[in-house]
Amino acid sequence: MSGHIQIPPPQNEPVLSYAPGTPERAELKATLQRMAEEVVEIPLIIGGEEVRTGRVHDFVCPHDHQKVLATWHGAGPEELEQALESGREAWKTWSRMPWEERAAVFLKAADLLAGPWRAIVNASTMLGQSKTAHQAEIDAACELADFYRFNAYFAEEIYAQQPISDPGIWNRLEYRPLEGFVYAVSPFNFSSIGGNLCGAPVLMGNVALWKPSHTALLNNYYIMKVLMEAGLPAGVINFIAGDSSEITDYLLRQRDFAGLHFTGSTGVFHMFWKRIGANIANYASYPRIVGETGGKDFILAHPTADPEALVTAMIRGAFEYQGQKCSAASRAYVPESLWAEIEGPLVEQTDAITMGDPTDFTNFMGAVIDDRAFRKLSRYIDDARQSEEADIIAGGEYDDSKGYFIRPTLILARNPRYVTMCEELFGPILTIHVYPDDAWEETLELVDTTSPYALTGAVFARDRAVLQQATEALRHAAGNFYLNDKPTGAVVGQQPFGGSRASGTNDKAGSAFNLLRWITPRTLKENFDPPRDYRYPFMDEA
Ligand code: NAD
User: Fold this and answer.
1) Is 87 helix (H, G, I), strand (E, B) or coil?
2) Pairwise CA distance, residues 300 & 484, whole Å
3) How close are the terminal C-alpha atoms of the chain, in Å?
4) Which listed CATH number (3.40.309.10, 3.40.50.300, 3.40.630.10, 1.10.10.10) goes with 297-483?
5) 188-209 confidence digits (pLDDT tens)
6) Predicted TM-score of the model (pTM)
7) Distance 265 CA to ligand 1 centre (A)
8) Where are the domains of the chain?
9) What is the pLDDT of residue 542?
10) Ligand 1: which of 293, 325, 480, 495 to mutate, most ligand atoms within 8 Å of CB?
């Protein structure tokens, strides 16, 4: 097709309220009920076909762990080989398909997510990952639709960038995809991240093997179906669940492994990086490594901070989705003068948080993802209870008799380097250190140096000079820095997301920075009048 094709300027998908009496609430409730009554069988999807291996596992509900929502099939070497072959075959046509045809698949997928699939992707996220209706809506429906629409728009901007040309010369840049496959490995905590980790490289003309987290499989399977319904050709994304280590061993050995698109914990990313490095001589090209990993996200309050705004940010920032957001506030620094004012309301509001089955819409929190997370978090709580350096001032109860429930917990740490001020816990635990009002500058230094991470952080102050000072002093402490706002809830196209230091390669998901990692440009120089004599004029006799 000839034409200067343009992507419609994207807008963020409006977040629906799910308030009583709304049509979206009625549809979501009906979908939840239907899904809770069925046991879905989740196959692999290879070359557009459903593959059942018979190596089946149960997928359960975190807030009701005896409830099996699905059974899923795990891949072995035979299926991995089939997936690789199918990807190689698909690459031949997909990598040459006009970019606007590829973009159309994602624009349509976004409309499906926002329309007929909205209740399905949200209900599966609520049941399978224990999110409330609001948390599921901002993730599975809205953020993923935003990723797909904004990525298409940014791709057009990238392709439009062309070099200058001297007279008689025509220079061009061709934005080729990578020569090989991208391995997309996604976490449990955001449905949208799964859809984006495979989607972004594929939009740019690559093929991907997508290995979802086994604790997000129900939703991720539906996302794969959305992409297929949107017209994604067979084999462009192969959906492979199974044993993470076995799959990784197999795929990283392949000569045509061309890139890793990972989101998850820092330790796992280190493992990937080392393995890729150790195998570097065996690859056909240098694999792109993109990883967004852990965080130890902070809220820093100045004596001039607005107390009510601060308390709200601490509660929403730390406890929404049970603190299982990479951006969740998990350490806070509050001056003595302000602490005297906010301690009461903070403890009171934390104790009042409703927690339980998210299909009961009055709950603010659900369960943590699995037994492993539950045990890890309860251990930190037990240790804090024993410690001389810390006190639990709210929450601290946990109960896994029905689901993996941990009460929202506030720990007051006398030692600003107490373990829960430094390590990523990934749960509903906020540790607070109260500092003397006159130790503001030392506290800035403390915030900057306490943890190896640098994902998100927030500073609360009314004084402009203080905001400016903190922005400067904490320049490298967070890839997403918030002034008088909670450190969570980044929106695609508005706050490009990602952190540096141990938090990742900071390639900003949902932005042109990320898409640039999935292309390898070719420069074409064409001469309309090439020279026909090798000698230069300066060589002539005077
Ligand atoms: P995880 O590291 O346990 O798992 C992530 C993915 O890696 C999953 O698909 C998992 O199956 C796979 N995996 C785990 N061990 C593996 C191994 N040995 N070999 C190969 N693959 C392996 O992380 P999670 O618990 O799913 O997610 C939570 C983590 O993700 C937190 O650390 C959080 O901060 C981080 N996260 C970061 C961002 C960000 O943008 N920076 C966003 C979301 C989550």
Assistant:
1) helix
2) 10
3) 56
4) 3.40.309.10
5) 999 999 999 999 999 999 999 9
6) 0.98
7) 4
8) 23-293+504-524, 297-483
9) 80
10) 293
